[in-house]
Amino acid sequence: MQSTVIAPSILSANFAKLGEEVDNVLKAGADWVHFDVMDNHYVPNLTIGPMVCEALRKHGVTAPIDVHLMVEPVDRIVPDFAKAGATMISFHPEASAHVHRTIQLIRSHGCQAGLVLNPATPVDVLDWVIDDLDMVLLMSVNPGFGGQSFIPSALEKLRRVRRMIDATGKPIRLEIDGGVKADNIAEIAAAGADTFVAGSAIFNASDYADVIARMKDAVAQVRG
């Protein structure tokens, strides 16, 4: 199992002082910065583009930037985020006409590649591409908005994908996004996740370090 990663979603941050928010959450123990990129087409919301990624890099952020593209079509924007400083780029199979080609595109630009499965997307979409992935991201809410509640069926899906990843013998991360909180992260970790996106649970808290520490402690207890 990979090391535990907490990736706060800046969707829930204060955008009027985004650089400071990201600095503070990283100082508080966060490992990655998670970007929720929405296009008001694939999902019913409009958020941020490559300029924000580039601005954070220029601000001095050196932590991995984990870009989750909820856009359709996806291939057009991949090179822009790679150039802007993305570390990892994940996309939804429904947003690509040729899933394997999009994975190749991401990697050709020097980024790690992830595939995102919505709550109703079957896991067999991974069958022929999992060996080419660096990460699988499971959505435990329907994409489009922050602050939603965790969908319990995601736990069984995590267990299934964890078995698939383990069978490859490769260091593929298993990320979860949606409704992750300090009080449910233990059961999520027990189901197989090693990378945890949390937005409102962290940014709506008065003490970022306290929330992140409680999350990491809960995961550590599950892993022994």
Automatic annotation (TrEMBL):
Function: Catalyzes the reversible epimerization of D-ribulose 5-phosphate to D-xylulose 5-phosphate.
EC number from the UniProt entry: 5.1.3.1
Membership in a protein family: Belongs to the ribulose-phosphate 3-epimerase family.
Cofactor note (record): Binds 1 divalent metal cation per subunit.
Coiled-coil zones: none
Pfam family, one: Ribul_P_3_epim
Keyword flag Metal-binding: yes
Binding residue positions for a divalent metal cation: 34, 36, 68, 177
InterPro entries linked: Aldolase_TIM, Ribul_P_3_epim, Ribul_P_3_epim-like, RibuloseP-bd_barrel
Keywords: Carbohydrate metabolism, Isomerase, Metal-binding
Gene: rpe
Active-site residues, record numbering mapped to chain: 36 (proton acceptor), 177 (proton donor)
Upper lineage: Bacteria, Pseudomonadati, Pseudomonadota, Gammaproteobacteria, Lysobacterales
Matches recorded under PANTHER family: RIBULOSE-5-PHOSPHATE-3-EPIMERASE (PTHR11749)
Pathway of action: Carbohydrate degradation
Residues binding substrate, per UniProt: 9, 68, 144-147, 177-179, 199-200
Domain of life where this protein originates: Bacteria
Name of the protein described by the UniProt record: Ribulose-phosphate 3-epimerase
Swiss-Prot/TrEMBL catalytic activity: D-ribulose 5-phosphate = D-xylulose 5-phosphate
Cofactor field: Co(2+); Mn(2+); Fe(2+); Zn(2+)
GO molecular function: D-ribulose-phosphate 3-epimerase activity
